[in-house]
Amino acid sequence: MTGTETVLGAPVERREGREKVTGTARYAAEFDAPGRAQAWPVPAAVARGRVTGVDTAPALALPGVLAVLTHENTPRLGDPDDPTLSLLQSPHVPHRGWFVGLVVAETLEAARAGAAAVRVTYEAENHDVTLTASHPEAYVPESANGGFPAVSGHGDPDGAFASSATRVDVEYRIPPLHNHPMEPHTSTAWWEGDRVTVHSSSQGTSAVRTELARLFELPEDRITVRSEHVGGGFGSKGTPRPDVVLAVMAARETGRPVTVALPRRYLPAVIGHRAPTLHRLRLGADADGRLTSLVHEVTTHTSRVKEFVEQAAVPARVMYAAPALRTLHRVTPLDVPTPSWMRAPGECPGMYALESAVDELAVALGMDPVELRIRNEPDTEPDSGKPFSSRHLVECLREGARRFGWEDRDPRPGAGSAGPLLAGTGVAAATYPVMVSPCAATARALPDGGFLVRVNATDIGTGARTVCSQIAADALGVPLDRVRIDVADSGIGFAPMAGGSSGTASWGWAVHEACVRLTGRLAEHSGPLPDEGIAADADTSGTADAESPFARHAFGAHFAEVTVDTVTGEVRVTRLLGVFAAGRILNARTARSQFIGGLTMGLGMALTEDSTVDPAFGDFAESDLASYHVPAHADVASVEAHWLDEDDTHLNPMGSKGIGEIGIVGSAAAVGNAVHHATGIRFRELPLTPDRVLTGLLEHGHPAGMLGT
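Given the sequence above, the corresponding structure tokens read:
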């Protein structure tokens, strides 16, 4: 595309696409250097306790092994902001899988063999890894993840619920879930004197540099972090993880470049996970279907290393008009790995439970579930009382219903069944907050007629390079092919991570401002440009992070069609459809990809993704892709993503909202509601695996289900 009239919003191809498909895009493990070594970590083999001895001699005797780092010989680190990065500093073992050693060798194979040869002895302690709603150590924290108050509410929800004409009091359970990006967590580091350079698979180089400076007690200007290409993260690479600390540590101790690529089976124990959540929802409504009371209480777990509280009750504060409302978070510290961010933290599990309960209320009322949601639209944000900058959920529901053919739906469970297959359809709403952070950017006009834009954005597969280039071309008023862009280098300047659906809004705001300022400077300039060109900088501190008088959220509606095999218990999703109101869409091609990715990830949460903490051994039983099942193309016949043209002037110069996470938010609930419509059975624990579904059919005496015995 060379024109400027449609550059912003156009379906522009990814700038790095050819590099990726031809294999020339280099990821963190692919930056080779003379003498580069490989390292392999040693995970703890007890669920809780302390290391009493380490015998490294068998490992050091192996050919190619260069060093074995443990708490006994590793230099002390500075105090980390994140305690999970205090690695090899103590004999204490807070949970199974915690790293107690690192073997550095000439080759990856030698490092792996060396790690297996290290002999570690432990003094084991009693452990507890089982989350229950009545756990005696559960407490109400000061706040949940993101700084949200743990408790919020208004009115008298208990009294209103007791006097409601129709009541729903239900519990939902979501298991631990894991990030499994295509590229595991990997870093390559080398020192040159007192300076260190790191290539890290991270969602944000600024955060990595800041933490490395703290740990290794260096000025930040002596640390360079690059994340040129990142093979996914879904939140798990949002902050530094053990790989980058271990790589820098090993490179310092050996004097050689070192790569640490965490084995996939180790990821669940050390890079975070979506914590399990136990939900209780009480919804009361009057005879007309208007909510009179909404109570959402969540119990989750955290580790004893660091408090992380999944903010799963927060979306209930946004969604529906209820004169009486209470939300509550409780958390239990256990001997488990520290939870962390996973796509749409809080909103994803919270909206699954809320939207399933709303569907139950619709059934109890005998009301269409789309109409029930529309009837309970709030005029302002229920929690804060702020007006919405824009809220087009009703339009998403209606447009989705039209595209899906919802008006032809027979509300009776199993009405569309044929033979052993029960068919059903379901709907769920979605929301995700608009977030934006300060960022720096530079734009430079060059003598050759081109422009160079530099912003420390991280492209984790979302198309950040491309969209930021489009924003620049639009602000400069030039064809897209005249804009070059540098990203993902901590030396460019500070920038927030790619997370919270805030990346493009944050980076793009700075890019837009820098380009607007450059345009002004060029208008004042006469004659040819100097050899170095003319540049302009932008720093959106104090602007991007200013308090807004508006409640800013993206919204969406999800629709699902399923069949349930009464012989095998297998659930098949035949259609997924989402319609979203997410501000101005900046690139139609990459946006559709993001929405479809979220819809599909929600499908996995609903049907296949499951993890359990083994109570005896204290580790996740499903630790690799052989046992933790993510969806494939064959798992859904049709996925559609659509959006409304939303003009919101209260966001940023582009008028955009984040889109990376809202696609997952309502997907699992829509599938679960469709399964209920197909079977007449409400399954309140995910995932809906064949054994769970078949058991439900048998317990409810479904005649076709008997064929499965």
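The two ends are 60 Å apart (CA to CA). Try to locate this feature in the token string yourself.
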